């Protein structure tokens, strides 16, 4: 994959009218390929692998909230970054997941070409699947470079998506509790 990517970046540099042989650009295809590999490494990860040995038995049944997980992804329409934050809440049903694993789940799906709506949905489904929770709520807030740097050039617009599963969907009280906690 690496050599393919490297050659592709060489072509992009030439196609935009640059001289790929000038000093500053000589190693750029190699560096860009490495960066792109990193930004798409989620394609090579699985939920089973990243949550391995981190699901614990627990009789807690109060809402667990993990707030402000940093999120870096790339929109699949322009291959430009979108960056923001993710909030995840769930109500355990006999099992809890180690804290760091929520960040790993977010990263696994964010390090792919994405649209924010789908990313939010995948994170929620993954948490539901791994924990068997009674309910899961996920909110993603992100700024999209394809909006900010090109097109309509709206620098301050933020996109907010949410997915509610189980009792977060069915019970307005649970959903509101989550929304209120995230606001603070
Ligand atoms: Zn875009």
UniProtKB/TrEMBL annotation:
InterPro entries per record: GTP-CH-I_C/QueF, GTP-CH-I_N, GTP_CycHdrlase_I, GTP_CycHdrlase_I_CS, GTP_CycHdrlase_I_dom
Keywords recorded for this protein, A-Z: GTP-binding, Hydrolase, Metal-binding, Nucleotide-binding, One-carbon metabolism, Zinc
EC number: 3.5.4.16
GO MF, any single term: GTP binding
The organism's place on the tree of life at top rank: Bacteria
Residues annotated for Zn(2+) binding in this entry: 75, 78, 146
Subunit structure comment from the entry: Homopolymer.
Top enzyme category: hydrolase
Substrates-to-products reaction catalysed: GTP + H2O = 7,8-dihydroneopterin 3'-triphosphate + formate + H(+)
GO CC entries: cytoplasm
Domain GTP cyclohydrolase I positions: 7-182
Pathway listed: Cofactor biosynthesis; 7,8-dihydroneopterin triphosphate biosynthesis; 7,8-dihydroneopterin triphosphate from GTP: step 1/1
Organism: Pseudoalteromonas holothuriae
Family of the protein in this entry: Belongs to the GTP cyclohydrolase I family.
Protein name from the UniProt record: GTP cyclohydrolase 1
BP terms from Gene Ontology: one-carbon metabolic process; tetrahydrobiopterin biosynthetic process; tetrahydrofolate biosynthetic process
UniProt-listed PROSITE patterns: GTP_CYCLOHYDROL_1_1 (PS00859)
